[in-house]
């Protein structure tokens, strides 16, 4: 199941990169490869060469990244290395797939400067005081965020009352709601966009954009609270046969919000194109130099925190502002910490096995990173050698197709601690006052010898 989820993740990455960068080779809305150009230069021979080279390199990069997915087949039985490989693959994928676009951007910009194909005014930050006053008039009220806040708090209280081990998961809805609220506040405070010399057009388009985007963030907060609810239900699910259903639902609640964002921003772009096509007073501003490689925006003369992306849909931050710097470097730092931390834990778990020992003072010690445990031999209520382990769910531990280690909850026995190689009987079952312990070695003979030592003690 995990390998399928990882492959679906890779497929989503492919789709996202294709729909984001492939259309950049087509002249649209006055731009080619995120460079503003006059329409009459599209037949220039060098422009045609840049387009053809991009399409060839983009296709080649995609094929090579597909080939790099083939090791997935060889790593099916090594879940830890499979996850690490996917993390490395995704990082490489985004770097490789962006390279053809970045080259096309640089070549197009150089050609534009060489031929002086400038469009509109340069280095001018347009403003409309009337729009600045009315820009948020039709936006969703911030008070509506009480809905996702109520959902998040309700889920936390429900989990707390049920004495379940996944209380931390339910707080995710509250965290994401706070983040979406902060983004909504920053969006409301961002500078209005000047489309035209006609103030009515500016007011209409700014209000339409902000209304749609404000409701998107609200719906995202509500949807993500539902998403965390389904994740919580998946974790506490006692019926293994329902795992596929819950995993499918959680994946859908990952894909659906992306679809909503895509639909709303496409609708906004269509509205802007239709209105401006009829207006006849469009204001063009040539600020290509502020777009590093056509992707990130850095303009010290602009106080706006969020600006509309040139590539893809949605907004990006102005990295010349302190909020923009905090957002970019914070995102990089968090992502790097997660990747390094997860990789370290996975590799350590793969290379380290639990070790059970009996100390001279009659204590049993099970040593394993993060899940070590010890107890007195006198506390053992029951000691058995069994050929199977009970079904249950992980509450705080590690579980792959090969092993299970850490805290689990069994339907038959309640709280359990697992230190086992799966499908590799026999297993030592130890009953304490409030928990069962299951342990085995990879070699069944060693497991039997260890059981005999415990029996003698």
What does this structure look like?
The protein is α+β, with helices and mostly antiparallel strands and 457 residues long. The chain has a domain at 355-456. Helices cover 54% and strands 15% of the residues. The chain is built from eleven helices and 17 strands. The protein has helices spanning 2-21, 45-67, 71-74, 79-115, 129-134, 146-161, 167-189, 199-236, 243-279, 322-351, 444-456, and strands spanning 31-32, 35-36, 121-122, 285-286, 291-292, 296-297, 306-308, 315-317, 355-358, 363-367, 373-376, 382-386, 392-399, 403-410, 414-421, 427-431, 436-439. Strands 12-16-17-15-14-13 form a six-stranded mixed β-sheet, covered by helices on one side. Strand 5 (291-292) and strand 6 (296-297) form a beta hairpin. Helix 1 packs parallel to helix 4 (79-115), helix 2 (45-67) runs antiparallel to helix 4 and helix 6 (146-161) runs parallel beside helix 8. The longest helix has 38 residues, at 199-236. It is elongated and about 95 Å long. The two termini are 42 Å apart. The mean pLDDT is 82.
Structure at a glance:
The strands form six sheets. Strands 12-16-17-15-14-13 form a six-stranded mixed β-sheet, covered by helices on one side. Strands 9-10-11 form a three-stranded antiparallel β-sheet, with no helix packed on it. The chain has a two-stranded antiparallel ribbon with strand order 1-2.
The SSE order reads HEEHHHEHHHHHEEEEEHEEEEEEEEEH
Gap between N and C termini, in Å? 42 Å
Strand order of the largest sheet: 12-16-17-15-14-13
The largest pleated sheet is described as: 6 strands, mixed
Structural class by helix and strand composition: alpha+beta
């Amino acid at each position: 199941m995990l390998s399928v989820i990882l492959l679906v993740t890779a497929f989503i990455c492919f789709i996202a990169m294709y729909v984001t960068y492939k259309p950049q080779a087509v002249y649209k809305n006055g731009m080619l490869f995120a460079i503003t150009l006059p329409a009459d230069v599209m037949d220039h021979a060098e422009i045609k060469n840049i387009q053809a080279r991009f399409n060839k390199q983009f296709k080649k990069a995609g094929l090579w990244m597909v080939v790099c997915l083939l090791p997935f087949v060889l790593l099916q039985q090594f879940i830890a290395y499979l996850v690490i490989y996917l993390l490395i693959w995704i990082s490489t994928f985004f770097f490789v797939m962006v390279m053809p676009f970045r080259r096309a951007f640089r070549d197009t910009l150089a050609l534009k400067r060489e031929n002086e194909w400038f469009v509109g005014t340069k280095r001018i930050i347009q403003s409309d005081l009337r729009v600045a006053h009315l820009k948020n008039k039709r936006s969703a009220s911030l008070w509506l965020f009480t809905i996702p806040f109520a959902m998040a708090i309700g889920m936390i209280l429900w989990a707390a009352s049920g004495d379940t081990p996944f209380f931390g998961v339910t707080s995710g809805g509250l965290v994401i709601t706070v983040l979406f609220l902060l983004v909504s506040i920053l969006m409301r405070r961002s500078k209005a966009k000047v489309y035209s010399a006609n103030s009515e057009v500016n007011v209409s388009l700014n209000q339409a954009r902000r209304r749609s985007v404000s409701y998107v963030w609200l719906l995202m907060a509500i949807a993500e609270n539902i998403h965390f609810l389904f994740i919580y239900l998946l974790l506490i699910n006692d019926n293994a046969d329902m795992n596929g259903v819950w995993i499918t639902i959680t994946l859908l609640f990952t894909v659906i919000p992306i679809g909503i964002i895509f639909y709303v921003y496409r609708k906004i772009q269509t509205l802007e194109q239709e209105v401006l096509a009829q207006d006849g007073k469009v204001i063009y501003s040539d600020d290509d130099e502020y777009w590093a490689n056509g992707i990130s925006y850095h303009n010290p003369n602009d106080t706006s925190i969020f600006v509309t992306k040139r590539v893809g849909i949605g907004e990006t931050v102005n990295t010349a502002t302190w909020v923009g710097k905090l957002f970019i470097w914070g995102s990089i730092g968090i992502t790097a910490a997660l990747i390094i931390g997860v990789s370290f834990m996975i590799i350590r778990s793969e290379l380290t096995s639990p070790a059970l020992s009996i100390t001279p003072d009659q204590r049993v010690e099970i040593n394993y990173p993060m899940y070590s445990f010890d107890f007195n031999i006198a506390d053992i209520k029951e000691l058995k050698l069994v050929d199977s382990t009970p079904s249950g769910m992980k509450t705080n531990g590690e579980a792959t197709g090969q092993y299970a280690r850490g805290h689990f909850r069994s339907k038959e026995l309640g709280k359990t601690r697992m230190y086992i190689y799966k499908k590799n009987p026999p297993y030592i079952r130890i009953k304490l006052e409030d928990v069962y312990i299951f342990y085995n070695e990879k070699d069944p003979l060693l497991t039997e010898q260890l059981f005999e030592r415990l029996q003698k003690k």
